[in-house]
Design brief:
single chain; 908 residues; alpha+beta; OB fold (Dihydrolipoamide Acetyltransferase, E2P); 9-stranded mixed β-sheet; 8-stranded mixed β-sheet; globular
Length: 908
């Protein structure tokens, strides 16, 4: 510790900030006491001085206090108003209501115009709240959304600048919170940016913008925005249209125009860090700048000073994300130390950068980019050298093995956080990074940068270089497309607990230390043992200033008297390396295998009614790990001719933004049965994203086709992937595994060749209806069945009797057979068609007599769902009502003993 005081001081600061964010005061005190005890032991072992131990403890306390202070003052100055909701259902609860305001303040961020929406961050100074007298004096950030009414409004909004003074009339809304277990919490995300409210305004008539203070910080930053946008426009000319979004992200950190599908492919291969402007970009920038300054015959001292001055401008130009801020600070500190001829190793620079950023804003610690940037950089500094010793040491192919070491260490260090946040790993990621990172870094990026700079002097030459970069891009895109398309190498791992992440990094640190110690064994030490010496030739420890970077807190290995000389025998010594490496591999592999299937020994089954807004999506997990997904939600959009300009570049799509991340977080590696109850968009639109990201083994649908873009695209995707499709046939049942059965309701077709597939515009009355039985607990799921289909199902069910037929075998080991449906009370019923008045008749409710009724419905939907009369009928039937708009996701857990437990994401 004494040789690296700044590193340990920064580490304790990080621990203190994390403890302040995640622990109560009692837990914080306990953690502080534990750290004090650990530091005391280090002092007794003479690994740390009393002064350093006290400084580290003070760092922990100071960081904790800073985070607690930041949280205490991160509050809103606007009133929080509540209203009673769903009182008619008997399950009323208080919800925070929106209200009208007129605010005045300064535009702080660049204005983003996307389709019919303009968005920016505003610092509000005064606010007139509806129902209040005098305006409130505030100093608060708002995220402003302005809905544009006409296409010409886009140009007006794009002309607004940072630093401008704005007066806006609109409605104040709370950001959406997580409504599914493990879902993205937008409210908490914005809270980390000290934003508590969304201000929604309609039309330019609600906004008045005027020039602000000329020399304010936002006004000065607006000039950076203008320059950045001008460079973006140059790139629109220099590169093909399909590549401009990628090149803007690569060179300038502008990811707004990046193709979402292309980003998905890069993400699957773990290549998104290429698009995160970071240390590599700073290094290339400084290399090019240094070369130009050498041509001008500038002295070393002046050149270093000029580069230090240029770095902040480059950081601002590329968007000032945490990764580039970290790299910029490290580069500035390193250059300054080099100018003073006191350059230390990278760990000191990294520690100083972390300290400066967290002291400036403790919320940086919660940023995923911050975490990955610092951890991977630290891993490269500490881990490459020990790992490199495992590879051939000759001069031949030295550069190749150096690249292998860097790539492997970077992948290993990022693995735990990648699993925790992104839940997927591709076995070809290592190969993709090894091939593409150098190619893009040393060919594409320099070509793009040179083309951009040269365009100001020689447009024709810039176009030529841009064409060369475009060819290189097509090569890299082809490799990405080919590798990401190999789905057999793509694995989904559910979000593990934080303790798993901590264990993995601890195990990596121990493994690294062992590798380092073994690598430090030297022949002189061994030869001295043969002559009776038990000490290294040089004795003692190396001076701190000469020590190379090594795992923190662990001494350098010295061969001692108890170690057998391999030249004189000692068979345990010969066996030790193999045994040791096997233990190290097991310490890392076993937790990964557990994370892949953490519930391998659980026999509970789950039925989850997911909150996907005004739509349906139900996830069923059987006791033996089979996954059944029924519908995938999706918004119904209506566009008039001439309104194409309203389309967003990256519109919200429930499958890609909500459903796929949820399934991945829960470790759904395969969907054994995908059910499309019918082909309306609010039930199937999200399924295309599911099929693109998660393998689907088989599909069940209502046996019809609908002339809609969503239906045609989905059925086409299923055909392209060769997914077997089965048409619903009333009376059939499927035994999924022990204790799990699906019984199909509805019309009996008996035409298993599926020769006739009719077109059907009105789909609701032809929904796939089923009863799912899990450990003898029953769930009635009927899609959007209307009253006519309900009556038909009741008539067929009541008169079905005992039907016997030959079994049908699917391609698995599961049987499909004709069986009768028992007439008995249902434990859980999904209310058809979101509680529409056209369904859930009194006869239907009387026949099934559900204990619990679940309504999947969107908040404040324009259809008026659920209907009041339907709610009254369900209440009269004695069913307990759960609603996704009020309760969020509703999850039922069924134990092997048939016990049924329910929990929901929102509400009491």
């Amino acid at each position: 510790m004494n040789s690296r005081p700044l590193v340990y001081f920064a580490l304790c600061w990080v621990l203190g900030s994390a403890a302040g964010a995640g622990l109560l005061l009692s837990g914080l005190m306990l953690a502080g006491a534990g750290l004090a005890a650990l530091l005391y032991v280090q002092v007794l072992r003479r690994k740390s001085s009393w002064l350093l131990a006290a400084a580290c403890l003070a760092a922990f306390a100071g960081a904790s206090a800073e985070r607690l202070w930041a949280d205490k003052h991160n509050v809103t100055g606007f009133p929080v108003r509540t209203e009673q909701t769903a009182a008619d259902s008997g399950s009323g609860s208080d919800s925070i209501s929106a209200y009208k305001v007129e605010v005045a303040g300064t535009i702080l961020s660049a204005v983003e115009v996307d389709g019919d929406r303009a968005q920016f961050i505003m610092n509000v100074k005064t606010a007139a709240v509806a129902g209040e007298g005098a305006p409130r004096q505030l100093d608060e950030l708002l995220l402003v959304h302005i809905k544009l009414a006409q296409q010409k409004d886009q140009a007006v909004a794009a002309g607004w600048k940072r630093g401008s003074y704005a007066v806006i009339s609109g409605e104040l809304n709370l950001p959406a919170e997580a409504t599914n277990f493990g879902g993205f919490d937008y409210r908490n995300y914005l809270l980390g940016q000290r934003i508590h409210w969304l201000l929604k305004a309609s039309g330019l008539s609600s906004v008045v913008v005027s020039p602000g203070a000329r020399f304010s910080k936002p006004s000065l930053l607006s000039h950076i925005d203008d320059f950045r946008n001008s460079l973006g426009r140059r790139m629109d000319v220099l590169f093909p249209a399909e590549q401009t979004g990628y090149m803007k992200g690569l060179i300038l950190g502008m990811r707004e125009d990046l193709d979402p599908e292309q980003f998905r492919q890069f993400s699957q291969l773990g290549l998104t860090h290429i698009l995160a402007v970071s240390g590599l970009h700073v290094a290339v920038f400084l290399y090019v700048l240094g070369g130009l300054l050498k041509l001008l015959r500038m002295t070393r001292e002046r050149m270093l000073l000029f580069m230090i001055t240029a770095i902040p401008f480059y950081v601002l130009l590329t968007g000032a994300a945490p990764s580039i801020v970290r790299a910029g600070i490290m580069a500035m500190l390193g250059l300054f130390a080099a100018r003073l001829n006191k350059l230390k190793d990278g760990l000191h620079l990294l520690a100083a950068a972390a300290l400066l950023m967290l002291i400036w804003d403790p919320y940086f610690l919660m940023d995923v980019g911050f975490q990955l940037s610092f951890l991977v950089t630290a891993g490269l500094i500490v881990g490459v050298q020990p790992f490199r010793r495992l590879l051939p040491q000759g001069k031949k192919l030295k550069g190749l093995f150096d690249m292998i070491a860097v790539t492997v260490v970077a992948q290993a260090v990022s693995f735990p956080l990648t699993i925790y946040y992104f839940n997927q790993i591709h076995l070809l990621s290592l190969l993709a990074n090894f091939i593409l990172v150098p190619f893009i870094s040393f060919i594409v990026m320099p070509l793009g940068g040179v083309a951009l700079v040269l365009d100001a002097l020689w447009h024709g030459g810039a176009l030529g270089i841009g064409s060369a970069a475009a060819v290189a891009n097509r090569l890299s895109f082809g490799v990405v497309l080919k590798l990401s398309g190999m789905r057999q190498f793509h694995f989904i791992i559910g979000t593990p607990p934080l303790m798993w992440v901590a264990y993995m990094y601890t195990a990596m640190g121990v493994s690294l230390s062992v590798l380092y110690r073994r690598g430090k064994r030297t022949l002189p030490d061994i030869s001295l043992q043969q002559h009776g010496s038990n000490r290294p030739l040089h004795g003692g420890e190396e001076p701190a200033g000469e020590a190379e970077t090594q795992p923190l807190g662990l001494p350098e290995y010295r061969t001692g008297a108890n170690n057998k000389d391999p030249a004189t025998g000692g068979s345990w010594y010969k066996r030790m390396p193999a045994l040791l490496y096997m233990m190290l591999i097991a310490s890392l592999a076993v937790p990964v295998l557990w994370a892949y299937d953490p519930e391998w020994n659980s026999r509970d089954a789950y039925v989850s009614f997911l909150d996907v807004g005004q739509g349906d999506s139900i996830l069923i997990r059987t006791a033996h790990g089979k996954n059944i997904l029924i519908d995938g939600g999706g918004a119904v959009t209506f566009r008039k001719k001439g309104d194409e300009w309203k389309e967003r570049g990256d519109p919200f799509e429930v499958g890609r933004k909500v459903l796929v991340p949820l399934l991945q977080k829960r470790g759904v590696q395969q969907i054994d049965l995908l059910v499309m109850t019918h082909l309306d968009s609010d039930h199937i639109k999200g399924l295309r994203a599911v099929m693109a990201n998660i393998p689907v083994k088989r599909m069940l649908w209502n046996g019809t086709v609908k002339q809609s873009e969503d239906a045609v695209n989905l059925l086409g995707s299923a055909a392209e992937q060769g997914i077997p499709m089965y048409r619903s046939d009333g009376g059939l049942s499927w035994k999924i595994d022990e204790g799990a059965v699906i019984r199909l309701l509805g019309e009996q077709r008996n035409d298993y060749d599926h020769s006739s597939v009719p077109y059907l515009k009105e789909q609701n009355g032809h929904s796939v209806a089923m009863i799912v039985e899990l450990y003898n607990r029953s769930f009635l799921l009927t899609g959007d069945a209307d009253s006519a289909e309900e009556r038909a199902i009741l008539a067929r069910t009541a008169s079905s009797g005992s039907l016997a037929a030959a079994e049908l075998q699917d391609e698995g080991n599961h049987s499909i057979a004709q069986q009768s449906v028992p007439s008995s009370a249902i434990d859980v019923m999904k209310v058809s068609h979101h509680g529409s008045k056209t369904s859930s008749t009194a006869e239907w409710l009387s026949y099934w007599h559900p204990s619990t009724a679940v309504i999947s419905v969107g908040r404040n939907n324009s259809y008026g769902h659920p209907n009041n009369e339907v709610m009254e009928r369900i209440t009269a039937a004695g069913a307990d009502i759960k609603r996704t708009d009020l309760d969020g996701e509703v999850e039922f857990r069924i134990t092997a003993r048939g016990e049924l437990f329910v929990r929901h994401m929102l509400g009491p």
